[in-house]
Amino acid sequence: MHPGKHLLLAACAAATLGSAQAQEGTFQTLSLTPETALKAAQAALAHCRAQGFQATIAVVDRAGLTQVLLRDRFAGPHTVSVAADKAWTAVSFRNSTTELARESQAGRPMSGLRSLPRFMAVGGGLVIEAGGRIMGAIGVSGGPGGDADDTCAKAGIAAIADSIEF
Predict the structure, then answer these.
(1) Which helix (H) or strand (E) holds 65?
(2) What CATH number is associated with residue 82?
(3) Which residues, 6+ apart, have CB-to-CB distance to 8 below 8 Å?
(4) Quick one: 53 exposed, middle or buried, by C-beta within 10 A (0-12, 13-18, 19+)?
(5) Rounded Cα distance, 82 and 79, in Å
(6) pLDDT in tens, 3-59
(7) Does 29 fall in a domain?
(8) Has residue 119 been placed in a domain?
(9) How many other β-carbons are positioned within 10 Å of the β-carbon of residue 57?
(10) How many domains does the chain have?
(11) pLDDT tens across 62-112, in order?
(12) How many CB atoms neighbour CB 150 within 10 A?
């Protein structure tokens, strides 16, 4: 073999090894665009209005940071923090807040979670997933109960499902 080929093969092997090591030391995530997060919030708000109630909708990214907060005209002032906390709780624990409400009841193994700041153990917070990956979460506050908030959150996710599936 020509000596130049040895150098070329060694360089290729080093680049491949370096690339493999870099892959082990990094990761990629997908995020909702602001436009997609807004579309989900708007659809959830429209669903709440159609059901006859005013609500606040929060969409957070996978780190729990708010991307969109949309409050209807007459939604109560408490709904702003409650919606954001529902979305934060759902993405933080990778579960719906309805399920977390059940699992964190007094006497249950996860009951201590209720003492955490921002933990919101009431329906209305859902994880947004696509392709088996968590993209964020949506939180709704203002309905006549967690079930009503859940239906609005589901409508928000349904509105963006085609945009985020891959």
Answers:
(1) none
(2) 3.30.450.150
(3) none
(4) middle
(5) 5
(6) 555 555 555 555 555 555 567 899 888 899 999 999 999 999 999 999 999 999 999
(7) no
(8) yes
(9) 36
(10) 1
(11) 999 999 999 999 999 999 999 999 999 999 999 999 999 999 999 999 999
(12) 21
